[in-house]
Design brief:
elongated, 7-stranded antiparallel sheet
Length: about 425
């Protein structure tokens, strides 16, 4: 208990207040978080302590039954009731007797909780609960479903009197890190050098089976171009980082080869699934429970002569522009994962997954036989919150003039860490 007014918050301390009819603050709680500014919503990682103080300033004697703090989280589909998966309450103050519950003046009580890393949830109705990693906050505009976390302070009055509640939503982000790249790619990141191709660094790439792109060119003749896409491994990538790619095209038709090599079409698709089978990889997918959008498009550029020479010196086996073969085009590529992209997760009734897809080129004069939206190749990838521990942050290698515009704005929840994430990354182990 204290007779002093609540102190002003620190730079990273959030303050929330409830006022009486006269406009006087009588219930205040403060909480520190990972947010870069107290003006933003609180931000927490799994396992973080949630600590602060509750301040009461009662103008007249009031009988109270106690103070509690609750962390509550749930999923809500549009038009449906919220389904809670986390509901933890701790007492902050409980009177020892009825007379001790009659308070007046200023009182301060500290509280502390720890955010769990998992929750026990039934994967299906009537199924036995099992442990799932807590999902991140999901609060995009016009989304078909939401995941919301709240911190609630309750003043318990007892009897027939209504309790008072003061709450705030907060951003929750489960810790996840990308798997480490190959030693040669890690060395290239550390030295800022050119990334070696699959022949020189086979551990650093997955070279997928060739796919054939067929269609009609200028409404006059049928053409075919073989494409081989190589994707940097492992297939886990942090948001705000590049995904290296290499695309090799082959054809005996030089005109078709040049035309299709000018417009490769590789996208990162995000699939948000809701409903009872969302967490299952093979769950039923319908238009009312599955929502797919492109979140990034890859940029490609001709393999530079200097990079080709470096690859040949390293034993890349002719990845530089086709090694002089007029029927081959080799393109360097990169798909940059936007800052704020939600990490991958699968949770009962809500899942977020990512797939890299190769689509037919969209170029004037070419009509693909498979249709413009055909997925010629699909590669499941995972998006993480941070990069691989101990690995230098990879830089983008996209040359000037080859950048692609962003696909959409997904910086809704994780954007609260834009200016503060580096500040907190060393704290991941506490």
């Amino acid at each position: 208990m204290t007779d002093s007014p609540p102190p002003p918050p620190d730079d990273d301390e959030h303050r929330f207040a409830l006022r009486d009819k006269a406009g006087r603050e009588w219930l205040v709680f403060t909480v520190a978080s990972r947010a870069s500014s107290a003006k933003q919503m609180p931000v927490f990682f799994d396992g973080d302590p949630v600590a602060g103080e509750v301040h009461l300033d009662l103008a007249k004697p009031e009988s109270l039954k106690g103070l509690t703090v609750t962390i509550r989280a749930g999923t809500t589909a549009v038009g449906q009731e919220e389904e809670l998966f986390l509901d933890t309450t701790v007492p902050v103050w409980t009177p020892a007797s009825a007379s001790a519950g009659k308070l007046m003046g200023r009182h301060t009580h500290a509280f502390a909780l720890t955010l769990p890393r998992e929750a026990m949830v039934a994967p299906q109705p009537k199924a036995s609960p099992r442990a799932y990693a807590l999902p991140p906050t999901f609060s995009e505009r016009a989304s078909a479903a939401y995941i919301d976390y709240k911190l609630i302070v309750t003043v318990r009055r007892g009897g027939l009197r209504v309790n008072n509640k003061l709450f705030t939503s907060f951003v929750f982000l489960p810790r996840s890190a990308a798997d480490p790249p190959s030693p040669l790619r890690s060395l290239a990141y550390a030295e800022g050098g050119t990334l070696l191709g699959p022949d020189a660094d086979p551990e650093g790439w997955t070279v997928h089976d060739p796919v054939q792109i067929t269609g009609t060119l200028f409404n006059t003749r049928d053409v075919g171009v073989q494409c081989v896409l190589a994707v940097a491994t492992p297939h886990t990538y942090a948001s705000n980082s590049p995904m290296p790619l290499l695309l090799t095209l082959r054809s005996t038709d030089a005109q078709a080869l040049d035309l299709l090599a000018s417009a490769p079409n590789v996208h990162l698709l995000r699939t948000v699934a809701i409903g009872s089978e969302a967490a299952e990889e093979a769950g039923a997918r319908r238009s009312n429970n599955t929502f797919v959008s492109s979140v990034a498009r890859a940029a490609f550029w001709p393999h530079e002569a200097g990079a080709a020479a470096a690859d040949e010196k390293a034993g890349s086996g002719g990845e530089g522009g086709g090694g002089g073969d007029p029927g081959v085009r080799v393109l360097r590529g990169e798909l940059f994962l936007p800052k704020g992209l939600k990490p991958s997760f699968a949770f009962p009734r809500f899942a977020c997954r990512y797939t890299l897809v190769l689509l037919p080129p969209q170029v004037q004069g070419f009509a693909p036989a498979a249709g413009a939206d055909a997925h010629l190749l699909s590669v499941r990838v995972a998006v993480t919150l941070t990069g691989a521990p101990g690995v230098p942050v990879p830089r983008s290698h996209i040359p000037p003039g080859y950048e692609v515009p962003p696909e959409g704005n997904y910086n809704v929840a994780t954007g609260f860490l834009e200016n503060g994430n580096q500040r907190f990354l060393p704290h991941h182990g506490h």
